[in-house]
Amino acid sequence: PDALVEEEIDFIIDRLKMDLESRGLSWEQYEKYLESQKRDVRKDKHDVAEKQVRLRLVVHHLYKAEKIEATEDEVSARVEEMAMAYPKEQQVKVKENCKKGNPGYVQVENILLLEKLLKKFVHDVA
C-alpha cells in the first residue's frame, strides 16, 4: 500500500538524517546538495522503500507463523548497545529515537525478530 511505502520513505530519511548528524553534517546541507543536483530524496528512495515494505510483509507473516517475538527488555538492551557505537553527543538522540512508540524502536525490534527468525531456520537446517 502507498501509505506503507510513504511511511518507509520517512523511516529511510530519518535514518539518513541520523547518519548525517553522526558524521557532523546537517540535513539542511544535504538538502542543498540534493537541490543543486536536481534530485528529490523521496523519489530517489521510493523503489527501495517499496521493496522493503514487500519484504517486511512477507517476513512479518513468518514471525507470526513461527511465533517469534522480541521483548521490551531485549529491545532496550540492543538500543543501549547500538547507542554506544555513536559519539557521546549523539547517544541521547539515538536512545530518544529508539524509545517505545518511536520509529527507531520498531527498527530495533525488527532487527531482533529477524535475527531470531534466521537463527531458527539456520538451527533447523543444521
Low-confidence stretches: none
Major beta-sheet overview:
none
Our Rg estimate from Cα atoms comes to 17 Å
Number of strands: 0
The average pLDDT score comes to: 91
Classify the secondary structure makeup into a structural class.
mainly alpha
Q: Shape, please? A: flat
Number of helices: 6
Can you describe what's shown?
The protein is mostly helical. Helix content is 81%, strand content 0%. It contains six helices and no strands. Helix 1 crosses helix 3, helix 4 packs antiparallel against helix 5 and helix 4 crosses helix 6 (103-125). It is flat, with a radius of gyration of 17 Å. It starts with a helix and ends with a helix. The relative contact order is 0.12.
What's this, in brief?
The chain is mostly helical.
Short descriptors:
126 residues; 0% strand
Topology:
Blueprint: H1 2-22, H2 27-36, H3 41-66, H4 72-83, H5 88-97, H6 103-125
